[in-house]
Design brief:
By secondary structure, the chain is an all-alpha fold. The protein has one domain. The protein has 9 helices and no strands. Helix 1 runs antiparallel to helix 2, helix 1 runs parallel beside helix 3 and helix 2 crosses helix 3.
Length: about 170
């Protein structure tokens, strides 16, 4: 099976990986560092990538998740943690007003303002669903849960986001 040139892979998946990491951290500088590191690792290992084992997107998501996980671990606790604990971990957010000034798009500003009011775990779930574009089944596998429980959790979380938006006129 032929592989795409890495430049094409980069162009196709950069924005998705960026969005996934950004939704988790809500910090541009850290996001850019992690995404850059992820693509550097992917480029270094691209000759070993086996398209018969996983799609290039799945492979890149794994690299980005591990890079994010390593970054959080090094900068927060320095100890190995479970995925559940990882979702609860977080970096110190940049000042929301500074980060908000960078957005041009009003929808992005509104999304950022809502994400700022969610817990680390909630942002982790949002980033898995909408940043990585994982199905409930895929999320359930990562979380050692079942897809119905994850779907219900996401339903409650989206309701919470709507309430935050209405309460704050976002």
């Amino acid at each position: 099976m032929d592989r795409k040139p890495f430049e094409q892979v980069f162009d196709e998946y950069y924005e998705k990986l960026y969005n996934y990491v950004y939704m988790r951290l809500l910090n541009r500088e850290n996001t850019e560092d992690i995404v850059s590191d992820s693509f550097f690792k992917a480029l270094s290992a691209y000759d070993r990538f086996d398209p018969e084992k996983a799609s290039v997107y799945t492979w890149l998501c794994t690299i980005a998740t591990n890079t994010l996980y390593d970054h959080l671990r090094k900068n927060k606790t320095g100890k190995v943690v479970s995925l559940e604990d990882y979702l609860d971990m977080g970096m110190e957010l940049s000042r929301p007003d500074e980060e908000l000034e960078r957005f041009i798009d009003d929808d992005a500003k509104r999304a950022y303002m809502i994400l700022c009011q969610l817990s680390q775990k909630e942002r982790g779930l949002i980033s898995m669903r909408y940043g990585m574009e994982l199905s409930y089944k895929q999320m359930a596998e990562l979380l050692s849960s079942n897809d119905k429980a994850v779907a219900k959790q996401m339903e409650r979380l989206l309701d919470k986001c709507k309430k935050i938006a209405m309460k704050n006129n976002i």
